[in-house]
Amino acid sequence: MPDSTPTVAAAEISRLAGVTRATVSNWRRRHADFPAPVPGGSEKRPLFDLAEVRQWLRGHGITAADSPVQRLRTLLRAEVAPDEVVALMAFVGDPRAKATDTVRVAIREAVDEVGVGQTLAVLSERGLDGPSTGVYPTDQLVAALMADLLAAATSPAPNSVLDPACGGGTLLLEATRLGATQLSGQDILPVQAARTAAALGTLAPRAKADIRAGDALLADAFPDAEFDAVLSNPPYSQRDWGADELALDPRWVYSVPPRGESELAWAQHALAHLRPGATAVLLLPPAVAARSSGRRIRMELLRAGALRAVIALPPGASTPRQVGLQLWVLRRPGVGSPGDTLLFADTTRLPNRGGQPDWPQLASTVLESWREFDSGDAQAATVPDVTAVVRVMDVLDDDVDLTPARQVRAAVDPGNASAAAHLAIGVLGERLGELRSVAETVREWNSGSGTDWRPVAVGNLIAGKAVRIVTATTDPAPADEPQRPVLTGHDLLAGRAPSGVTTPGSPVGEPIEEGDVLVSRLRDDHGAAQGARVAEGTDLGAVPGPGVLVFRTDPARVDPWFFAGFIGSPDNAAAMYGTTTIRLDPARLRIPLLPIAEQQRFGSAFRRLHQLRVTAHTAAAAARDAADLIATGLTAGALEPPTG
Fold first, then answer.
1. Would you report the helix, strand and coil content of the chain in percent, each value rounded to 5?
2. CA-CA distance, 293 to 289, in Å (whole number)?
3. Are strands 341-346 and 307-312 parallel, antiparallel or unpaired?
4. Domain 140-411 class, CATH top level
5. Any idea what DSSP says for residue 164?
6. How far apart are CA 317 and CA 322, in angstroms?
7. For a Cys-Cys bond, which of 18, 238, 369, 560 suits 262, CB 3.0-4.6 Å?
């Protein structure tokens, strides 16, 4: 552990005090006795003596907004060097190990509060010493889709799975859901390798895991091994991946990768580690499908039948969020004749919800299309304007451009395009009718009396048992438990249905019940975000996920919609804290104290306003879908404007 004086940056001070970083900056300007920066920081990121900060906070009557996770972050920053985190990862992965010092006690407390996965993420932050270039986590929904593509393939169900760039182990954990028991992984960062080993050892104890640290391209930890499947989200745009040292490497069956094609080196690395006929799914940037330098390798992959599908995901599906990534489905040749067709899917064309992907529909469309294609039914695999089955010889032109949007657009059928456009226009008309109907319910309002509300703290309602917070459990779900929908804080902000699914070993809390008040802990910087609603429909039975507070009211004393409406009001801005992400402290929430009859009257109004917002989102999404379908048909020559 470091011998230097424990220090903290402004971000840690804001977490300690439960305020924003802007508040910390104001304290520095307005209070002459605020601790001075100590050596070791910079002008943009000054550091402060932790003991002096704590003493100053106590002296000004500021109670630390402490939690086990916040205490752990502070201790890691103050007492643990980045290169010491690997040993702490191993401690997390061994529940029998005794906590012998302050940091390990804090780790145990954090595990009890938020579970193994999030605790390992906190340790990883310190081990990486902040964000590291090229360290891109795999979004949980994308990881689940990648594993499900393996399960839907005609190749045998995988028992042994490799991830040569395993990161935090998300993909290998998903492989255990498929029944895989032999898990192998490698990562160039020792902290990430240790994190994966700890996660698998704790969350998938029945599986045999072999996780190594090292560069899988330059120092392959499994040089002669073949696996039933490969799942990977390899690094992007590497310039120093070893092009010169590996020029004669036997893995380059489909041509030597140029220096600027590290992703195609990873693709061939994956194929080299597959048994004949086995499948790999890789998450890659879109440039790999079209860069001129990779044309030769793409051509050879197609000729050999090694590339079976290219699936474009919408931007935001996984980090980096601004890029629409692609899934490449590869299969090592050797069983049967090479495939003469290729599946393309452009999921950006699928309908969305409030500007966000409708993930359940996206996943089911992709999986069903891939399943039908892989079983040999090209017609059933084709979804107009979304998927296309293309002959390999039609792609082998001067560019060998495998961009799904281009291939799907070229395959647009005029009859299907016209029918889809007319259907979308019909759906839009229905949604606009619903919007007009709901808008009528909020037309008439009476003038208020202007009387000030008499507020009551939610904490008092909880103490009086009129309201209770449904707390999440940290007990991991059994490995054989079926997946359940997960509602996130972002789902609430977007006004959409649960978008996530549970994963093996993840904590599963008490399911959401009818009448529960669902509140997003996340708020934007524009005041009140409409992230509170009463559970109904698809919410029921879902598991509350990250960023979700669940309140259960006594309906005889507190009307749920009344509670939800005032919780989401601008008056509760005082309950928000944080820096770049604004979060909600339930103890600071306040609602008016009104008789139950008055609560129900206001609750009815809040429910109508919620329906108005949801219907408006749905109508806007229908308008975008109709416009996009018509535009695609016009530009592809499948539709023409009316004459006259």
1. 40, 15, 40
2. 10
3. parallel
4. alpha beta
5. T
6. 9
7. 238
The Cα 249–Cα 243 span in angstroms is: 10
Question: Which amino acid does the sequence have at 68?
Answer: P
Q: Which among 178, 155, 172, 143 is positioned nearest to 371, based on CA atoms? A: 155
Collapsed DSSP state (helix, strand, coil) of residue 601: helix
Give phi and psi for 402, each to the nearest 5. -105, 20
Tell me the per-residue pLDDT of 259-308, one tens digit each, with 9 for 90 and over.
999 999 999 999 999 999 999 999 999 999 999 999 999 999 999 999 99
Element (H, E) at 366: helix 359-374
Tokens of 625: 């879908």
85-92 vs 190-203: helix axis angle to the nearest 10?
A: 10
Contact at 8 Å (CB) between 544 and 470? yes
Q: DSSP 3-state assignment of 456?
A: strand
* Helical residues (DSSP H) of 50-189, grouped into ranges: 50-59, 68-79, 85-92, 102-127, 140-152, 170-177
Amino acid at 418: S
* Protein fold of 455-592: Adenine-n6-DNA-methyltransferase TaqI; Chain A, domain 2 (3.90.220)
| Spatial separation of the C-alpha atoms in residues 97 and 466, rounded to whole Å | 42
Paired with 583 in beta bridges are 522, 577
- Domain-wise residue ranges, the chain: 7-127, 140-411, 455-592
Q: Structure pTM?
A: 0.67
**Residues 147, 150, 156, CA angle at the centre, nearest 5°?**
140
- Identify whether the C-beta of residue 610 lies closer than 8 Å to the C-beta of residue 533: yes
Q: Is 527 left (phi over 0), alpha (psi -120 to 50) or beta?
A: left
Q: Which two tokens stand for residue 308?
A: 């079976």
Residue 513, C-beta contacts closer than 8 angstroms, at least 6 positions apart: 535, 540, 552
At 579, the pLDDT band (50, 70, 90 cuts) reads very low
pLDDT digits (tens, 9 = 90+) for 434-480: 889 888 888 877 777 666 678 888 888 888 888 888 865 545 555 55
Cα 48 from Cα 226, distance rounded (Å): 52
Dihedral angle at the C-alpha atoms of 187, 193, 195, 200, nearest 10 degrees? Answer: 100
Tens of pLDDT along 378-433?
989 998 889 999 999 999 988 999 999 888 877 665 666 677 777 778 888 988 99
Q: For residue 451, what pLDDT is reported?
A: 63
Instruction: Tell me if residue 482 falls in helix, strand or coil.
Output: coil
Name the average pLDDT for the chain: 83
